[in-house]
Amino acid sequence: MSIFQQFESLSQSLDGTLLYDTLHKILYATDASAYRIMPEAVALPKTTEDIVKLMHFAREHKISLTPRTAGTSLAGQTVGSGIVVDVSKHFTDIVSFDAAKKTITVQPGVIRDELNLYLKPHGLFFGPNTSTSSRCMIGGMVGNNSSGTTSIRYGVTRDKIVEIKAVLSDGSQVVFGELSSEAFIEKTKGDSLENAIYRKLYEELSVAATQEEIKKEFPKPEIHRRNTGYAVDILLKSDLFGGNEPTINVGKLLCGSEGTLAFTTEVTLKVDDLPPTNNVMVVAHFHTIQESLEAVVTAMKHHLYTCEMMDDTILNCTKTNREQAKNRFFIQGDPKAVIMMEVGSYVSMEDAEAQANALIADLELYQFGYALPKIYGSDIDKINELRKAGLGLLGSIVGDNKAADSIEDTAVELSDLPNYIADFSAMMARHGQEAIYYAHAGAGEIHLRPVLNLKTKEGVYQFRNIATEVAVLVKKYRGSLSGEHGDGIVRGEFLPFMIGEKNYDLLKRIKLAFDPYSVLNIGKIVNALKMDENLRFEPGREEPEIQTIQDFSDSMGILRLAEKCNGSGDCRKPASAGGTLCPSYRATKNEKDTTRARANALREYLTQSEKDNKFNHKELYEVFELCVSCKACASECPSNVDVASLKAEFLYQYQKANGFTIRNKIFANNAKLNKLGSVFPALTNFMVNQPLVKKGMGVAPKREVPLLAPKSFRKWLESNKSNKITDSFVNGQVFLFCDEFTNYYDVQVGIDAFELLTELGYEVLVVDHEESARAYISKGFLEEAKSIANKNVSIFAPIVTAEIPLIGIEPSAILTFRDEYLRLADDKVASEKLSKNCLTVEEFFKREIDAAKIHADQFSNDGKQIKIHGHCHQKSLSTIEATFAMLNLPKNNKVTIYNSGCCGMAGSFGYEKEHYDISMQMGEDTLFPKIRATESKVAIAAAGTSCRHQIYDGTNRKAQHPVTILRSCLK
């Protein structure tokens, strides 16, 4: 029987899913590490019985199982050549909660931050807090013994383990929890694999010489964050093995074992009381890295909740990230490094303030830091978000030289930190390197990253050479080569040196006891794969030159734009995390529908395909299909991977080879067809909504095709030339972009904008111009879009200025000038200059309000209650705050912003019959429930025409454009 037949048989026996097509193997070949290993299959089990069946299959066919949740591992733990078992989709239940005992039992696919949302009403939280907490899952945190920013106060994941339910390599299901010494001895008796494991641990760790070897070679016990091999040193605390604790918990050994000993199905955790809400953060600014780390020793004498460091490389990356640029408000001058130190008090804000002042006084006494600002309230959250984005931000570095994960997880005793860093800096200088520093400084853990080109043989040589020298340096200080990211592939090879050959042999024997069939995550921790093989990039390969119609020179080409994705998985965050990224993943919970998957698949085919047109692969069509081009990835992804631009280019190149469908031609040429249809709009409206016509166009039966207005906006303008509202244009002139949606569908919105601006003292100029090309871009008709971009740039560039800007009503249309035109237009200088003076109507109003040209006394005091849903392109390329400022101007208006993601319509996407259900699911994720909960007297503002249609279809509520609402507020 062939392997495919075997997989087919296995697939039919599972309640979950087994995937062994090329695309899914590509998507699971990488995680957030430097490695790429193609699996034979991917399993999405639904039940524990599925995992048992997979274990039996693996044992019978001598194939490895690699457990995986969010796939954000940095050491290569979640890639493997056998079956990758992804529990993130179905193992997501909170099983039980005991508030009195402060324990909670969860399945491994529960997201850390969602767990804490569940616990918050009870005044509790799970302390370990990784930078990926919005999408990382408890199973991965247990596998890596994760810790994060809060470990100096709340410990690491291992400290929280009460009990672990797991499937052993023979398929038996066991529970590892706290046992008395007597109960442990009792477990050694019997013939089961569980009994054999306890027996082996007892035999090995009872030997005095073994105990002494562990104590001598393992990292210093004072280093709380240590993930070196298996945590046998923790077991030595038991009175069974020379310690003084009367109980022992083998579950703590599983924590940090990276799925190499057992397959976790449930975890019971201890949780803590919520941290204090009276907080002050002191952000110390330093001229040198060395000074910043010397200051940590002084800072940690205080009662800190967090003590985190970032260097200037990461801070500089925030300047070019749309989301994080807003969060660097606290930076003073040009620091080489900053340390963020948070104090807190359960007593009062005054007490927290006193603690912060004492910390500052101590730092000033020793002359640490040139600036020591204090940060309060929600601004602390913004700084923490910036810090969390650090790893992803490093992916935004343009070019082939990237921050490499090879030495990024070292930890030493706090008192050794300054000397360790001095030695490290000297070593890096010898290599001609200046590393990137990103640290849990208060815990003595430094995420050091050399900048290497792993596409070259020299870069890979340095990858190994630097890692080897750092291992020697860490060993000198009896530190841990891994503080929280795990050994995996990148550090597993160094374990014999780090803990000694005798201890390493002990780990191998323990692995054999747990996994005699050699099926659990082979090649990690023991018998590890070589750290400089199986890399994501093939060293010395001649990189393909990919010709594109769009200009991707800002990333040095489309391939390097895709390669910016480092796998950090921000696109997997759930709706509860806020933001928009990524609507399709939120709807399906499939890795295939993440922006990470799209970047990975495109990178794979652009480098591995032997076709002349490397875009011509059905797998690429499949992975891009549900991308709604919301552009959230361009702002919320720290690495700035603009997948919407990648999709537009892919569609263009793919359709060049395979042809453009009739439906795509209809949607792309929508403006031209509307021009014809507007001659007899009533007839057109009747025809396009006939069931047979909709069926022929591939439109979902439940959708109503938008109706053409009786008269276009341009015709209204022509017929109302003489009906002047005023001759007094005290505020000057503006150009209004007559977009194709406003012109044919939303004419009243255009009228509202025109008359509102006129009444406020602006002369509104509308010239002849082309449509925006939005529909052409979304459907991959880039030659047509390029032509339109060139024409519009030539029309507007000579006449639009900062004083007389071009403003737009439909966000997706006007923002094309600021985004896609920069990639499409031939005249780069003109398009760049023009883009700076193209504003959404909301941005224009905010600008004029700030300039005191528009006043509250021009509007009624009656007051309206208004809730705003932001268009995705506004959120990514503009700001919703401008809409808030505009609608909040009338004195008694009460305006709030929905924390809503993508509405799901996305232009024509939601009208397409095969996408209707997924479109509505996207709306249900956050937007629809919030609108249904909104009182009928509250006005709903939505700038996007697609948003307004989707809101009506999903909730039967009519939303209005902000200019319509503001016009109704005029006196």
From TrEMBL:
Source organism superkingdom: Bacteria
Xref: Pfam families: FAD-oxidase_C, FAD_binding_4, Fer4_17
Cofactors that this protein relies on: FAD
Domain (FAD-binding PCMH-type): residue spans on this chain: 35-274
Domain 4Fe-4S ferredoxin-type positions: 618-649
Organism expressing this protein natively: Flavobacterium sp. WC2409
The protein's name: FAD-binding and (Fe-S)-binding domain-containing protein
Coiled-coil residue windows: none
Keyword Flavoprotein attached: yes
Keyword Flavoprotein among record annotations: yes
Keywords for the protein's UniProt record, in alphabetical order: FAD, Flavoprotein, Iron, Iron-sulfur, Metal-binding, Oxidoreductase
GO biological process: one example: lactate catabolic process
GO MF entries: D-lactate dehydrogenase (cytochrome) activity; D-lactate dehydrogenase (NAD+) activity; FAD binding; iron-sulfur cluster binding; metal ion binding
